[in-house]
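Why this split exists: single-chain examples teach little about how molecules sit against one another. For that reason, every record in the complexes split bundles all components of an assembly together and asks for one structure covering all of them. Below is a record exactly as it appears in the raw files.
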Amino acid sequence: MATTVETLRTGEPAPPARPLVASRARASRRILIDRLACRLVVLGGIVIIASILAILLVIVGEVYPLFKKPTADLVGRYQPPLASTLAPGDSVGVDEYREVAYAVTRSGALALYALDGRRALAAVPVPDLNGAEVTAVAALGKGPLAVGTSDGRVIPLDLKFEVTFHGGGRAVAPKPEFGEAARLDPERKRPILRLASIASASGPLTVAQVGPTDLLVHSVVEKKALIGGSRKEESITPATVGLDGEITALRLDGRGEDLFIGTSHGQVIRYDVREAQRPQRLEAVDVASAPGAPVTTLGFLIGDRTLVVGDGAGGVSTWQVVPPPSGGERRLTRVYTFQGHHGPVVAVNGSKRDKGFATADASGQIHVHYGTSGRTLLSMKVAAGQPLQSVVVAPKSDGLLAADRDGLLTQWRVDNPHPEVTLKTVFGKVWYEGYSEPAWVWQSTGGTDDFEAKFSLTPLIYGTLKGTFYALLFAVPLALLAAVYVSEFMHPNIKAYVKPVVEIMAALPSVVLGFLAGLWLAPMVERVVPGLFLVPFVVAPCILAVFALWRIVPSAIRGRVRPGMELALLVPVVLVGVWLALALGGLVEQTLLAGSYRGWLLSALGLTYDQRNSMVVGIAMGFAVIPIIFTIAEDSLANVPQHLRAGSLALGATRWQTATRIVLPTASPGIFSAMMIGFGRAVGETMIVLMATGNTPVMDWSIFNGFRALSANIAVELPEAPEGGTLFRVLFLAAFLLFCLTFAVNTVAEVVRLKLRRKFRYL
Amino acid sequence: MSPAARHLWRGGEPFIWLTGGALALALLLVAGFLGLIVVNGFGLFWPQDVVRLTLTDGKTLTGPLVEREAIPGEAGQHRVKIKVANRDLYGADFQWVDETSIVRREYPTDVVVMERTEWGLLIGTIKEVREAGRAVATGPAQGAAELARRLPDAARARREIRAIEKGEVGAINHAQEGIRLALRRLEGQKRYQERAAKLAELRARQTATVVVAADGGKEKELPLIQVLGVETPNMMSFAAKGVYYVGRVWEFVSNDPRESNTEGGVFPAIFGTVMMVMIMSVMVTPLGVLAAFYLREYARQGTFVSAVRIAVNNLAGVPSIVFGVFGVGFFIYLVGGSIDRLFFSEALPTPTFGTGGILWASLTLALLTVPVVIVATEEGLAAIPRGMREASLALGATKLETTLRVVLPAVMPSVLTGLILAMARAAGEVAPLMITGVVKLAPALPIDGFWPFLHLERKFMHLGFHIYDVGFQSPNVDAARPMVFVTTLLLLLIVVLLNLFAISTRNRLRRKYAMSAV
C-alpha cells in the first residue's frame, strides 16, 4: 500500500523504499474489519444453510400435531342443583361453549348447571306431569329431546341455548320449550321404560318400550291435502318382539329405516320400520363380547351409520349394516372391538362433530374411542361416589361430561384435534362406513357434515410409484442407450451440438410438457395405441436392416463416412420406422383386434381405456426424465479413464466389446446414480401428472388407467384445505413423505457418484 | 448365418447402430416437440382464408378450416373441422364436416371476420350499418367503408370508458377506502357520481351498430363499441397479412385477457412472471453467494461441510411442490399471519399478508432456486486458481480484501450463470405457485399508482399457470387451445433463451479458466 506503481519507472534508480509499516492503527483496523467480516460470513452462511435445511423442520412441525397424544384435563365437579336421581336414557347434555349443562331428573325437572360456577340457574319443571315421573329420555340427534313419563306419555323438549355477545363477553341462556304431549298408551297408561325417537323427513317417529318385550311404534305423518293445509296422520302400532329374556336397549337410526333392539341375551335384533304400521323383523345377531352377556346400551356415531354396542361384560364394539364383500343382503356386521370395561357398560355417547364416542361403566371408568380408526384414545376415571349413569361428549368435541345417578357432574377438557389420523389410518386399510371390508381410500371432502373423511395416503403413494415406473420404463432404455452412443461412439464434432440440445430439453417447464401431454398427446395416442406398442419391434429391425444394407454399400463410399456419423443416417430411418409401426398398428387393429383395440382390451383383458392414462404420463414424464438420466450417465461414462479404453482396443476388442465389457461396468455406479436421480425427479413431478392423468385415486397397475400422485394431490387440495385442519396436516405429511423419499434417493445417488469419482482418480 | 455375419454380430457393430437409434429417437422427440409448439404458436395470428362450404343438404358453413383427419373406420375418407365461430348464434365454435358431403368450396371476398369484446369471433357478411336504429350504409362494400370511418371513434370511446371504469373510479374507490371522514367521503361520492354520469352518457352516445348476416339466415346486430377489429382475410394481400400479424402479436403481449382468459392478451401474466422472477433474483443472489462463499472460502473443509454440500445439492432434487408446501406453512401462515396480527389487525379476519401473494411466491421460489446459485458459485470458486488468492494474500491483503477485490470479480460470471439458470427455473415453475398466490385473473397488477406503489401482498398472474388454467380449467377448451399454444411458445422462448444464454456464458468461462490454468 505504501509504494505505488508510478514510482517504479524503467530506467530510473528505485527510490529508497519507505518502511512498509503504515500506521499501526490502520493495520489493526483492517484486521478487525477482516475478523468481523469473517465472523459475519460464517454466521450468515450457517444461518442461510440452516434455514434452507429448516424446511424439513417446518414441515415436521406442521405434521407433528397429527400424532400428538390426545389429552384430557379435569375441569371440575358440579353438585346437582336438585336432590333427585337422574332419569334413565340420554338425560344429560351441554351447550356448545360448555357453559350450561342440563339434566332431566326422575322427578320431572330440567336441572341446569352453570359450568363456570359463577351463577345459579333455576330448574325448569316439565309441565303437566300430574304426579307422574320421568322414566326415559331420548335424544333426537343434535337438538330436541323426547321425555317419556310413567303414565305412558311422550313430551317433546326442544332445548335451545341463546348466545349473546356483548362487550367482548358471551352469555349463554338456556331456552327450553316443551311441546304437546303425545299419549302413547292412553288406555293402560303403562310407564315408558325405554324410548327411541327421531325426526325423519316424513315426520316424527317414536318407539317406546312399555313391557319386557312390548313396544309401541308411534308415527306422525304429515300429508298435504289437495285443498287447504296439511293433515296430520297419527298412528300407534303395538308390537311384541319375540325373544328370550327382555329388551334392554333401543335405538332408531336418523333416517327412520332401522330399529335396533338390544336383548338381555346378548343379541341385537334389527327391525325395518320404514312402514311404521308394519315393522318387519330382519335379523338377530349375537353381539355380546361374552356369551349371554346382556346388551346394556346402544348408540350411534354421527351420521347414524355405525352402531355402538356396549354389553354387560364390559365389551364395546361397533357395527354396521353393510352387504358382505361377496355381495348379497345387507347384514349387521362387526367393524371394530374396542378396549373394554371391567363392569357393564352403562352409557354410550357419540360426538356431534366426528366419529368419536365415549363409553362409561358404573364404576366410573370412561373411555374415549374413535370409530374410523378403531382406537381407544383416552381413559379416565371419576372419583369414587355414586354409580355413573351418563356420559356426554360436548358438541364441539372439546370436552366430556359424566353424571352419576344423583346428578353429580364431572367435566373434562379434551384436546384431541386430529382423532381420525393414526399411522394405521394413513397407511393401512381402514373399514369406513358403508364399505363391506377395510380398504385404502383417499376421499378428503364430502357433501355432508357427517361425512367420514378418508385419509389413506396409500393410493396416492401407489399412484406416484405407478407414474414413476412407467416414466422410467420409457426413459431409462432410451436415455442410457443414447448416453452410451454419445459418449462411446459418436463423433466429437456432433457431440458438441447434441449435448446442449439435451440440456435445453432438461430446462423445459413441466407445465408445457403437461399441457401437451394432456391436450395434444392424449387424444393422439388414443388413435394409435396398437401402433405405439409396435414401435420398438419395428424400429429396431428397421435399423438392423439399414445396417445390413450399409454393409453392402461399396467400401469406396462407405470409407468416406467417418465412424460416429451414423446418426445422420439413423434419423430418417427412425422416422420411417415409427411411421411404419403406426401404419402397421392400424393394420393389426383391423385384423387381429377386431377393428377396435378398446373393445379387445375390454373383452380379452378386462381393461378399460382412459384417454388420460399412465401411458401418456409415462411418455411425457419420461420426456422430462430422459435429459437428467442422459446427462449424468453420459458424464460418468465419459469420465472413465481413456487408458482403459485404449488398453482394451489394443488387445483386439471391438469398440462395442470395449464399451460393454470395460466402460459400462466401470461406470455402472454412475449409471445407477443417474437412474436414482431420474427416479427422484419423476416422483416429485407435479404438473405433468396433474394435467395428463384423470387424477382419480384408483389402485391398479393397468397402463391404460390414470392415477393420482402425492404431488398432484397436494397441488389440488392444499388451496382448499383450512389452515391447521386435519386435511392440511395430512397434506403436509404427504409433502414430508415426498421430501424424505427424494432426499434419501438423491443422497444415495450423490454418495455413489462421489465414490465413483474417487475410484476414477485412482485408476 | 455366415461366419462373416456372425463375426459382425459378435463384434457388436449392429448394437452400436441400435444405441444410435435410441439417440435419434430422443432427438426426434425434442425436435417434434419444439416444432409442434412453434408451428401451432406462430400460426395463430396469421389470418387464414375463410372458406364457404356448401353441403349436400343445401346448408352453408363459413369459416377457416382448422383440421383435416381420416374418418376412423372408413378407409380413404376424410373430414374437416371448420371454425364457424359466432358462438352466440350457433352455440359451438367448431363443426366437423365429412368431405363427401361438401358440394362446393368458395372463398367469397365479402366475408368479414370481426373480433369483438364478447362471444369470440363473428363471421359473416356486413348487411348494414345503423346509427340509432337508422341505416346509414347498406351492403358489404359501403358497410365496410362506413365501419372503417366509425371504428376509430368507437375505439376511443371504449378506451375512455375503460379508463374511467378502471382508472378513475378505481382511484376514487381507493381514496374512499383510506378516508374515514364523512365529509371527504361525501366529496368522493360526488366525484364518483359525476364519473358515473359521464360513463352513462358515453355509453348512451354510442348508438351505432352493425348488422352482419351469418349462415343459416341468421343475423346479428352488434353495437359498434363492441367491435375490436374487422378484416376480410380473403381480400388481404400477403403483405397486409404480415402487417396484421405483427399487430396481433403486439396485442397479445400488451393487452389484458378477455372472456375468462381465452381471448385477448397475456400482459398481466407476463408482468407477473417477470416481477416474480425479479423479486426472486433480488432475494436469491446475496443468499446464494454468501452461502457459497461460506462453504468454499470460510468454512473449514471436512466431513461436516461436505455433508452440508451434499444436502444442498440434494435440495435441488427435492420436488418443487414440497417447497410450495413449505411456503404455505412457513411464509404464508407463520410469517404472513404474524405480520397481519402485528400490523394489519384492523383488517382481520380478512388476511393481508396471511394469504398467497407475489412476495411469498417469490420467496418460495428463491428457496427453490438457491441451491442452483450456490452450486454454480461454488463451481466458479473452485475454478479460480489458488495462485490468485495466494498472490493477493502475499501482497498483504486481508482475507476480506482478497475476497472482495480478487475472488468476487473473478467469480461474478459464475454467479451470473447460476442466477440465469435460477431465473429460467423460476420462470417455468408452476406447482409451488399454485398454492402460494397465483390466480387465474388478478384484479390489479402488483405495481400501480397508489401508495406504496409496490403491493407485495397482491396475488398475481403467471404465464405457466395461465397455460394450466386456460388449457384445463376453461369452459371452452377447444376455442382456447390456440391461445394456450401461443402462451406456451412465449414461456418456452423465455426459458430457452435464458438457458442458452447461461450455457454459452458457462462455456465461455470454462474456456477462459482452462487457458488461465495453463
